[in-house]
Amino acid sequence: MTTLVIIGNGFDMQNGLPTSYCHFYDKYNNQLGEYFVYFPEFFDDQKWSSFEENLGVFDEDNFRENEAWQPSMDDMIESSKYVNGYNDEISQKTDELVGDIKSAFTTWIRSVDTKDSTRFMEFPKGFKFINFNYTSTLQDVYFVSDEDVLHIHGEARRDVIFGHGTGNGSQSSSMVLNDEPWFEEAHQTLASVTDKFHKPVHDILDEHRANLEGYGDVTKIIVIGHSINDIDIPYFECILSAYPNAVWRNWNHKDEENDGISSTHEKLLNIGVHVDKLYSLSSKNLVRAYPIS
Questions:
Q1: What CA dihedral angle connects 5, 284, 132 and 236, to 10 degrees?
Q2: 198, 163 in Cβ contact below 8 A?
Q3: Does the CA dihedral 203-112-164-179 come out positive or negative?
Q4: How far apart are CA 262 and CA 196, in angstroms?
Q5: pLDDT 10s digit of each residue in the chain, 293 long?
Q6: Which of 184, 4, 165 is nearest to 90 (CA)?
């Protein structure tokens, strides 16, 4: 019999690590703020709490008007160099935007030091882990073997996979022809920005399906600190389908502003977890459920 543990960012935060998007905002707002004026979802999300999801909408017109000089028809009649120069400038500016955001996010993730973590519980031997975090907290602080941890979205010391789940990641190849064919290259470049920030969940799921479905006789599934956002639901559906008889224990955070316990409980029910097999509790009680010996 196997116990499978699904780890979300709430776990790292409960260990005292600065891994919320608010921490990312505090460190990189001055550096990246000029880029996010072109992602309208950030307007109502001043602390970047939905950072990855916000990258799914890019204001191409605003970017084009502010970041590059667009030649007039007379300019283009005079010389094709103006069109080529415009397309090149758009390409350069979008590469800078995408590169700087990705570099900042990866640098931030890699700056989190698990030595600053405070262990508050103890996992029994034999547990298997699906870790949605990039950190190695489980290995460094809880002494879990690497072979027992699946980093579904990569890890800080290797590759980091992040992004939004809007569309299918093929925006640039499916765009409708516009009334400015001479700028088609620039339009495709602009449309590709959201593609470059797309998280390929279904490809990741296909890559790791054998692992997710291969844990044997799973009798209990423990979820700790996971918000169960829409983009991650396919993973949960896969796990539920593979282990339909397992009981679920959902540990999450609740405060005056956010009731993570109730919201994630409802999400798991909507996914298909049977009400009689699901119990949701405050993550504050993990210290009593799994005390350090």
A1: 60
A2: yes
A3: negative
A4: 34
A5: 999 999 999 999 999 999 999 999 999 999 999 999 999 999 988 889 999 999 999 999 999 888 865 544 554 445 455 556 678 888 999 999 999 999 999 999 999 999 999 999 999 999 999 999 999 999 999 999 999 999 999 999 889 999 999 986 556 544 555 556 556 777 889 999 999 999 999 999 999 999 999 999 999 999 999 999 999 999 999 999 999 999 999 999 877 566 779 999 999 999 999 999 999 999 999 999 999 98
A6: 184
